[in-house]
Amino acid sequence: MDTVSSAPLILITGGSRGVGAATARLAAAQGYDVAISYVSNEAAALGVVADVKALGRRALAVRADSADPDQVAQLFAAIDQTFGRIDVLVNNAAVLGLQSRFEDLDFPRMQRIFAINAIGPMLCAQQAVKRMSFRHNGKGGSVINISSGAARLGSPNEYVDYAASKGALETFTIGLSKEVAREGIRVNCIRPGHIYTDMHASGGEPGRVDRVKDSIPMGRGGQPEEVARAVLWLAGAEASFITGTFLDVTGGK
Questions:
Q1: pLDDT band at 147 (very low <50, low <70, confident <90, very high)
Q2: Rounded to an integer, what distance in angstroms lies between the CA atom of residue 127 and that of residue 136?
């Protein structure tokens, strides 16, 4: 086991793009070693690794589908071997289907959305808790779930299944935060609003943020870095008495 570095380790699922990549870069700038998981875009993941290393931190990218328990176990085994610790888990990986009315959604899509957006974070959190919890001789830690303003708004006519999966993630946040609060683990949740990322293209509308920005009280979409700053604040000592909390990064929507 390589334990040369005493720097805290942050794992960001879905860390090759968007909010995940921005969080990885900011975490490195703040002194974290960084592990990311990704599913398909190895080049983008390696680009994030290079950025982290350029900031003087250690980095690891692991191909892992967070909806697959075996791949999640392998992801954490790789972190054990490379870093020998985990201090922060950011459950960021998520998928979106094409915009659709609810009655037209097919069953495989619903299964996939929930597997990645709700069950995936639960699988990752299980592994993290087994390493962080005082009950397991851990030193504590922080879990941050990335939900969405959609969990409150419901995303009618667009992504009701996505919104429902994020609602499940929020309820999981509440329950887990209470279960592990005395074991040194804080569990919080961030709800990004309309953020300029590639995810909107997955829903079939790359320009969606610009279309809806007039509905945002601040009159603009958000940048991935603005979400990353909220993630790192919740992860760190400044939020030491905060658990089971939801932080909206939505421009007031």
A1: very high
A2: 11
> Cβ distance 104 to 98 under 8 Å?
no
pLDDT over threshold 70, residue 5: no
pLDDT score at 197: 87
Residue 117 falls within a domain, yes or no? yes
In a domain, 1, yes or no: no
Burial class (CB in 10 A: 0-12, 13-18, 19+), 54: exposed
**Dihedral sign for Cα atoms in the order 229, 30, 75, 50:** positive
Extended beta strands in 103-243, E state: 141-146, 185-192
CATH number at residue 195: 3.40.50.720
* 196 is a catalytic site residue: no
Indicate the pTM of the whole model: 0.95
Containing domain of residue 163, as a range?
Answer: 9-249
pLDDT surpassing 80 at residue 2: no
How far is residue 26's CA from residue 186's CA, in Å, rounded to a whole number?
20
Number of structural domains found in the chain: 1
Catalytic option among 32, 38, 162, 196? 162
The span from the first CA to the last CA of the chain, in angstroms, equals 46
Has residue 30 been placed in a domain? yes
Nearest to 160 by CA among 144, 172, 148, 173: 148
As given in the structure block, the two tokens for residue 104 are 């037209």
Residue 4 lies in a domain: no
Distance CA 144, CA 244 (A): 10
**Bridge pairing between strands 9-12 and 141-146:** unpaired
